[in-house]
Amino acid sequence: MEETNPTSIPFQDQNEVNLMIQVSIQEPYVINPTGKISIACINCGVKNNQLRILCQLGAKVTVFPWNYPVRQDEFDGLFLSSGPGNSQTQYPETITIIKSWITSKTIKPVLGIGLGHQ
Length: 118
Prior knowledge:
By secondary structure, this protein is an alpha/beta fold. Helices cover about 25% and strands about 20% of the residues.
């Protein structure tokens, strides 16, 4: 069996690729428009089951792309989905959205799953 030099195998550095473009959406959409509370979801690769559970709990969920400027005054809470990559170095747009919510004078709940949001 012939050996392969490990350094000769090309590997793509995941920190150099914007994977969020591949797993997120391009345009916002609404699920369960008659829900009693309004949740903004930043789609960093959201799982359908996560959205389904929010709707089962009675939420109207508006799903946004990872880099969409979500206005806090239009929603009761923010849900940040899990996703690929390093949010601190690769996705400053998402970090800006999160900071605008957590530094606002109006306190609203923020729930994050994965992507270092915990």
